[in-house]
């Protein structure tokens, strides 16, 4: 195999992340923030409205693997509470449409910020990418939100290694939909038969990449039970992300 490009998943592969989207420490501060905009919801009612928004948007997106847009979910919560109807958001002279967009984006990012418990690159990730970026064009294919996925790559110091970043939230669809992989391949000008994808999920990453025509490297010990039950056998399996160069060398020699 001649390898001409390498694509990566992000969360659980390059970035060690833990979030709690629905806990008291997350929704509690959001509940109080909303009161400054005239919205008085208890934590459970806020959670119920957010969960209803998730179900609604998943139901109306015409894709087999739909991706949510949390800015739209927060926009709906505010609209249902009558915030936009009462003109509360136009008091500073900003156009109402722009203001609706901005507060929905701010709430999506605040929700993510409060939910975060850990966000850091896995050990030796930067050194591995230093090595690979000198030899191959690199790209990202990640299931994530356009509102914060690139900012988190920037925060962890990773974004500069990649010629292109494909985020599911930009496209309205998620892995294993092959279109999300081909978007990144097209952007870096590499044919699928000459590309390798690295991810930690046997179905979304391994199956999706292989269905797109790529080889797939599965990373992480936690993936082994899922691998066994999913029937999605990777082309190579490693336990730690810094082992990717050795895995690529092994694939190239086959």
Fold topology:
Blueprint: E1 5-8, E2 15-19, H1 24-35, H2 43-60, H3 70-80, H4 96-115, E3 116-121, H5 125-133, E4 138-142, H6 149-155, E5 164-167, H7 168-171, H8 178-188, E6 195-199, H9 202-211, E7 215-219, H10 223-230, E8 236-238, H11 244-252
Parallel strand pairs: 1-4, 1-6, 4-5, 6-7, 7-8
Antiparallel strand pairs: 2-3
Outline the structure in words.
- α9 links the parallel β6 (195-199) and β7.
- The chain has helices at 24-35, 43-60, 70-80, 96-115, 125-133, 149-155, 168-171, 178-188, 202-211, 223-230, 244-252; strands spanning 5-8, 15-19, 116-121, 138-142, 164-167, 195-199, 215-219, 236-238.
- The model has no long low-confidence stretch (mean pLDDT 91).
- The chain is of the alpha/beta class.
- The chain folds into two domains: 5-17 and 119-252, HAD superfamily/HAD-like (Rossmann fold); 19-116.
- It is elongated, with a radius of gyration of 20 Å.
- The strands form two sheets. Strands 5-4-1-6-7-8 form a six-stranded parallel β-sheet, with helices on both faces.
Q: What is the CATH top level name of the largest domain?
A: Alpha Beta
Count of folded domains: 2
Low-confidence residue ranges: none
Give the CATH H-level superfamily of the largest domain.
Answer: HAD superfamily/HAD-like
At CATH level 3, the topology of the largest domain is Rossmann fold
Structural class: alpha/beta
* Average residue pLDDT: 91
Order of helices and strands: EEHHHHEHEHEHHEHEHEH
Radius of gyration: 20 Å
Sketch the major β-sheet.
6 strands, parallel
Count of β-strands: 8
Estimate what percentage of residues fall within beta strands: 5-15%
Q: Distance between termini?
A: 6 Å
